[in-house]
């Protein structure tokens, strides 16, 4: 039997607590794995000026998959940075480690299954089952940003873009530019992943989310790509929706949607909305998947105000571990976790605060682990 190498990256805040609960479940499962701790998070930014140190990057190059907790991503003000002795005067720029990880390891699929488990008092409707495919490496997350705007860029844009004329008179420090960069390859592979998933899981439709009527270049490309790839899947219907409209439709008629595919930022937004329909961020699990590596995490953040209280719901992370097992090809073990989680939710005896109960993070982990016996 293979021993899997799993990088274990708790990160900050409640990330540490939800991973602890998830470990209880994995240990009860007889999943044959070696877990290797990796340093990541705010603490390492403060100590070393790097929230995602090189040693952790090397660890990720040598594992089968990773479990990741959460990280504090604060916009750091220069003045604040100057207060930290190790960082003073270095002019370092903080970039979210998880965003860097997605790009560095080309984890281009952000997979966010959103399923209502019967008995969850937080379900908007018990029948919701929507899988979100979010592009994970480009779009508004490309990191191509200017604040202030350099003069040469302003001059070039003024020469080639009519709409830019009204900005070109401004000083560089009077505005900022964040570029939305979408490639054909990046769009194609996420759309294809969504269609493949639909095909392999008996889904009848894929809905592409965009704003191509206004953001014509990038979203236009994404939508055109979807139309062209859809032709290869004649049994699956391609729907499309503007990103603003889909937020209303998802609330009004969530059962009309099976698979959603979206560029990075829209995917970020609609996946939180979808998670809320099935119980909120305590239930939103996420997989960052590339051709070689998968990193699995809850989609919530580090929740500093709950840190140390062991009260947040670990189900999102436990379901992320289920996704990891599925991705590793351990379907049976994945099913066991899902069934045990569904049973605890249905029974309703162990509930964390978000579900109206007072069970702790670890009690929830233990309750799910007990169902595996
Ligand atoms: C997510 C989060 C991240 C993102 C943050 C923490 C950078 O919101 O995984 O959805 O924006 O992608
Ligand atoms: Mg998000």
Low-confidence stretches: none
Structural class: alpha/beta
CATH architecture of the largest domain: 3-Layer(aba) Sandwich
**What CATH first level of the largest domain would be assigned?**
Alpha Beta
Helix content: 40-55%
**Strand-and-helix sequence, N→C?**
EHEHHEHHEEEHHEHEHEHEHEEHHH
**N-to-C span:** 21 Å
**Shape verdict:** globular
Annotated CATH topology of the largest domain: Isopropylmalate Dehydrogenase
In terms of quaternary structure, the protein is single chain
How many domains make up the 3D coordinates?
3
Strand content: 15-25%
The largest sheet has its strands arranged as 2-1-3-12-11-4-5-10-8-9
Radius of gyration: 22 Å
CATH superfamily of the largest domain: Isopropylmalate Dehydrogenase
Rounded average pLDDT:
95
Name the descriptors.
two-stranded antiparallel ribbon; binds magnesium ion; binds 3-isopropylmalic acid; Rossmann fold; alpha/beta; Isopropylmalate Dehydrogenase; 373 residues; ten-stranded mixed sheet; 17% strand
């Amino acid at each position: 039997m293979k021993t899997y190498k799993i990088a274990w990256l708790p990160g900050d805040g409640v990330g540490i607590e939800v991973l602890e609960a998830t470990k209880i479940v994995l240990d009860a499962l007889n999943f044959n794995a070696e877990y290797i701790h990796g340093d990541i998070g705010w603490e390492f930014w403060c100590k070393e000026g790097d929230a995602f140190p090189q040693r952790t990057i090397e660890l990720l190059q040598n594992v089968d998959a990773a479990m990741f907790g959460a990280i504090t991503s604060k916009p750091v003000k220069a003045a604040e940075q100057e207060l930290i002795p190790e960082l003073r005067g270095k002019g370092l720029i903080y970039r979210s480690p998880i965003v860097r990880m997605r790009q560095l390891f080309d984890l281009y699929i952000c997979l966010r299954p959103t399923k209502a488990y019967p008995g969850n008092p937080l379900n908007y409707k018990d029948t919701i089952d929507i899988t979100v495919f979010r592009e994970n490496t480009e779009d508004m997350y490309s990191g191509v940003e200017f604040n202030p705007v350099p003069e040469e860029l302003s001059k070039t844009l003024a020469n080639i873009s009519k709409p830019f004329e009204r900005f070109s008179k401004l000083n560089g420090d009077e505005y900022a530019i964040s570029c939305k960069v979408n490639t054909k390859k990046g769009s194609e592979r996420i759309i294809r992943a969504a269609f493949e998933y639909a095909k392999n899981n008996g889904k009848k439709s894929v809905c592409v989310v965009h704003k191509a009527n206004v953001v014509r270049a990038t979203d236009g490309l994404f939508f055109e790509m979807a139309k062209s790839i859809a032709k290869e899947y004649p049994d699956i219907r391609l729907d499309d929706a503007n990103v603003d409209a889909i937020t209303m439709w998802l609330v009004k008629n969530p059962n009309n949607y099976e698979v959603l595919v979206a560029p990075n930022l829209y995917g970020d937004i609609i996946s939180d909305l979808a998670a809320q329909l099935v119980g909120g961020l305590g239930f939103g699990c996420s997989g960052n998947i590339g051709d070689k590596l998968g990193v699995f995490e809850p989609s919530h953040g580090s929740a500093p105000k709950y840190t140390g209280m062991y009260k947040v719901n670990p189900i999102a992370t436990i379901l992320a571990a289920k996704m990891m097992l599925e991705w590793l090809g351990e379907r049976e073990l994945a099913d066991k976790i899902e069934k045990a989680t569904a049973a605890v939710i249905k029974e309703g005896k162990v509930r964390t605060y978000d579900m109206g109960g007072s069970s702790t993070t670890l009690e929830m982990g233990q309750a799910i682990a007990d169902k595996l016996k």
